[in-house]
Design a protein that fits this description.
The protein is mainly α and about 575 residues long. It has a domain at about 75-160. The protein has helices at about 10-20, 40-45, 50, 55-60, 75-90, 100-110, 120-135, 140-150, 160-175, 175-195, 210-230, 250-270, 280-295, 295-305, 315-355, 370-395, 395-400, 405-420, 425-440, 450-465, 485-490, 500-505, 505-510, 555, and strands spanning about 1-5, 35, 475, 480, 570. A three-stranded mixed sheet has the order 1-5-2, with no helix packed on it. Strands 3-4 form a two-stranded antiparallel sheet. It is globular and about 85 Å long. About 45% of the residues are buried. GO terms for molecular function: DNA-binding transcription factor activity, RNA polymerase II-specific; RNA polymerase II cis-regulatory region sequence-specific DNA binding; zinc ion binding. This is Transcription factor, fungi. It comes from Penicillium expansum. InterPro entries: Fungal_SecMet_Regulators, XnlR_reg_dom.
Length: about 575
């Protein structure tokens, strides 16, 4: 089986990290850009099931329920709780109908009569909404039950665009990115074939409610399709040049749609072109960063909040973290190629220093200020993503229950890990961010995609340096020691003596350069200080003239695509000698 994940995917970055860990840096060949057998790396990181979207073992042996979707088997109060949680969280990504519509549908589902019976697609959408909301709770097993009932009848409704999106939303919460991509793509093509990307002509009789619903339907699909394709590094099925429909009145959908237009610009101008000059690529990235920061005013208009305002509770807090995570994620991926370049360059310089003086090259040895600035953009975006996700998870259970946040944790943490693999001296600065992320992830409901994300992070830390591995914080009660709430055990993390090593490590506790408070390792919610984390300026802080040191492919002597940093590859789980080079 072969799958493609592009350069913006954290799967590709993880494979790069795997190669850095297992390869001899003095003999490692440059990437060929062809098909790459990823089985060993996926197994090392325990990420094979997430990568290929295969089900858990218990799901393989589970027989799906069949029959009429209207046959009720779940207590009404529990169904109402699931729907309420959906309407307070995931609903904001797919607000196709007013909230009261779904509440009325639930009442009709439980109190239906032959004269007032919900149609099949509406029932399926309602059950999928409840299933998605159930996954982050202690009642997550209901999510599987509801999903299987819908799946058994899906073939009858697979032409319904809205249901495909709810199906994709469920798979996203389950950590099945390939399935999400396929269903969003199918929904996008069905929307295009129905003309949803065009406003209805003025001579067509439509109520204002129908026009608004049509606009919300298209733009919410555009948002989901755009950011998810950005996440997996694959082309989107929706192209803005084909779109001729006004924004809806929903201010939050307008906000996300405007941000996704900038995401599209990053995809096209950073990753969609082959850059011969890294300096030119940096100037493009700075321009995109300015566009991204322009959305802060839109955030104030839509939610009445500033980018760095305190974390909010409830439904408002969910919308706040959705925007903040996408905002910083876009900045991170716009500037991450520069971080990858610097890592390659540092490895090359280290190799050159270990070789004889007769192999001296004319390549620059000092890192230009503009390159460090670009890398700081990526690092700061990763840290701010982690800070907001950890804080929001602490104060808002609705945020803590959203399992797709594992994607954002993974991207940000592996970005920091990549940096200290190539520059070990900064590991003490970034490890507190990694530990805070692991602590937050361990408090989420056990199972994938969270368990695989934790396992991958732990494996990388252990392979870099055994002392880096994170151990769950333990709470002592009388003579017994146990993880808080048992969550660490549920995630497959076995407490051992290493927590004592970490807590007694004088290098960690006494070194003021670590950027963390003395009690960072003894409290589950303490985070490194964020006050000094300011986004680097994108103006003329390091000049913009022609005198700046540039890097070109001919100068470096690399067969290396600056835009993708050779993270653009196919992955196969089978060894093959005739893999296509595409």
């Amino acid at each position: 089986m072969q799958l493609y994940y592009g350069p913006t995917s954290h799967f590709s970055l993880m494979q790069h990290i795997y190669q850095d860990l297992v390869s001899n840096p003095t003999s490692r060949p440059e990437p060929s850009g062809g098909v790459e057998e990823a089985g060993a790396g996926l197994d090392l990181f325990s990420f094979r099931r997430i990568f290929f979207g295969t089900p858990d073992f218990h799901e393989i042996n589970k027989s799906p329920g069949k029959g009429d979707l209207s046959m009720m088997f779940m207590p009404y109060d529990l169904a109402k709780t699931f729907l309420s949680r959906f309407l307070s969280s995931l609903y904001h990504l797919i607000p196709l109908r007013p909230k009261i519509y779904y509440e009325q549908c639930l009442d009709r589902l439980y109190n239906s009569s032959p004269a007032d019976h919900l149609d099949g697609p509406t029932q399926a959408i309602l059950l999928l909404a409840m299933a998605s909301a159930a996954l982050g709770t202690d009642h997550f097993a209901w999510g599987d039950v509801l999903f299987e009932r819908v799946k058994a009848s899906l073939t009858a409704f697979d032409d319904v665009t809205d249901m495909l999106r709810f199906y994709a939303n469920y798979q996203n919460e389950q950590g099945r990115p390939n399935s999400v991509f396929l269903h969003l793509g199918s929904a996008s093509r069905k929307a295009l074939s129905a003309g949803l990307h065009k406003d209805v002509p003025h001579d067509v009789d439509q109520t204002p409610e129908n026009i608004e619903e049509r606009r919300v339907t298209f733009w919410s699909l555009y948002i989901y399709e755009t950011w998810f394709c950005f996440h997996v590094g694959r082309p989107s099925s929706l192209n803005l040049k084909d779109v001729a429909i006004e924004y809806p009145q929903d201010q939050f959908i307008r906000l996300l749609a405007q941000l996704c237009k900038t995401i599209t610009r990053s995809v096209n101008e950073i990753y969609g072109q082959r850059h011969e000059s890294l300096l030119h690529m940096w100037r493009v990235a700075r321009s995109i960063a300015n566009d991204i920061r322009g959305h802060e005013a839109h955030l104030q208009q839509a939610l009445g909040l500033g980018l760095d305002d305190s974390i909010q509770a409830g439904s408002l807090g969910v919308r706040q973290i959705i925007f903040i995570a996408l905002y910083h994620h876009t900045l991170l991926l716009t500037f991450r190629p520069f971080l990858i370049f610097r890592g390659h360059w540092q490895r090359e310089r280290n190799i050159a220093l270990n070789q004889s003086s007769t192999n001296v090259t004319n390549r620059p040895r000092e890192t230009p200020t503009w390159l460090n600035e670009a890398c700081n953009h990526a690092i700061t975006a990763a840290q701010k993503t982690l800070h907001h996700l950890c804080e929001a998870s602490r104060v808002n259970n609705l945020v803590l229950e959203l399992r797709y946040h594992g994607y954002f944790f993974g991207n940000s943490v592996f970005t920091l890990i990549y940096e200290f693999i190539h520059n070990p001296s900064v590991a003490p600065v970034y490890l507190p961010w990694v530990y805070a992320s692991l602590q937050t992830l361990s408090t989420m409901r056990a199972g994938d995609p969270i368990a695989s994300t934790i396992a991958a992070m732990q494996t990388v830390l252990r392979n870099i340096n055994p002392s880096y591995e994170w151990a769950p914080l333990l709470a002592t009660t009388e003579d017994n020691v146990a993880p808080p709430g048992g969550t660490a055990i549920q995630q497959g993390l076995t407490p051992n003596h290493r927590h004592r090593v970490l807590l007694s490590n004088s290098a960690i506790l006494q070194n003021p350069s670590l950027g963390m408070r003395p009690d960072t390792l003894t409290s589950p919610w303490n985070l490194p200080q964020l006050e000094k984390l300011e986004n680097p300026e994108t103006g003329g802080s390091v000049g913009s003239g022609d005198d700046l040191l540039d890097f070109t492919q001919s100068d470096m002597g690399w067969d290396f695509d600056f835009s993708t940093m050779d993270l653009d590859a196919f992955f196969s789980i089978y060894q093959t000698n005739d893999a296509p080079n595409t």
